[in-house]
Amino acid sequence: MSLLKNFSVFSIIYITLYFPTSTNAAHFDIQNNCPFTVWAAATPGGGRKLNRGASWGLDVAARTKGARIWARTGCSFDGAGRGRCQTGDCGGVLQCQAFGQPPNTLAEYALNQFDNLDFIDISLVEGFNVAMDFSPTSNGCTRGIKCMGNIDGECPSQLRAPGGCNNPCTVFKTDQYCCNSGSCQPTDFSRFFKDRCPDAYSYPKDDQTSTFTCPGGTNYRVVFCPDGLYDDGPDDFTCLVNILDQMYLVDC
C-alpha cells in the first residue's frame, strides 16, 4: 500500500511537471481594420481602444460560455475610463462588465461544450454597427464566418439608428421579432439581414445556418471591417466629445 501510495504521488508530480494543462482554452486576436478608431469590448475581457491597424490579444479560460466580442464606435472616455459610446456602450465604462447597447455586431462563443467543441457565431440579433470576420486560426479548423453586407447603407428606415442599423426586436419589442414565446419564423426584416450576411444570426431562432463548431482548444481572430471599408463613410459617422463635463455629438 505504501509503495502504491508513493507511486501515485510520484505519478501526479510527474504528470504535472511534464504534461501541464493549459488554463486558457483559447486565444482571441482582435483586430481593427476600420478607417476609424473603435473601442473593442469583450465579456469576459473588458475593453481596449483600437486605432486603425491596432490589435488586442485576449486569453479566455476553458468552458467559458455566453461570451461575446464587439466594436464600440463614437466613444469618449475620461482618464478614469468613464464616458459614453454612440454604439455598443456598456454602461459608460471603458472596461466592459456588461453587454453592449444595440445596435452592435456580435461575435459570440462558448468553449469546450458538447463533445468538447467550441460553438461560434456572428449575431445581428442586436443589430449591426461594423462589418466583421470571425475565423479560427489553429487546430485544423478552417471555416471562418463573415458579415460584410452593406447593412448600414441599405438599412430600412424603421430600423435606422445613429452609427448603425437596429434589429427589429430592439425597435418593436414584439414576439414576432423577439421570439419571446420560444417559437417564431423569419420576417421581412430578418431576411433583410440574412440576405446581406448569410452566415450571421438574423433572428433568435436562426440556429441551423448560423452556428459553427471547432475542436476545443482552437484559437480565433476577430476583425472589424475586414475589407477596410466603411460603407456609410465619414459623413454619416459621429463621435462623442467631452466639453466641460458635458457630452456632445460631433462629426468625426
Automatic annotation (TrEMBL):
Its main location: secreted. Disulfide bonds join 34-225, 75-85, 90-96, 147-197, 155-165, 169-178, 179-184. Pfam families: Thaumatin. GO terms for cellular component: extracellular region. It is found in: Secreted. It comes from the Eukaryota. Belongs to the thaumatin family. This is Thaumatin-like protein. It comes from Prunus armeniaca.
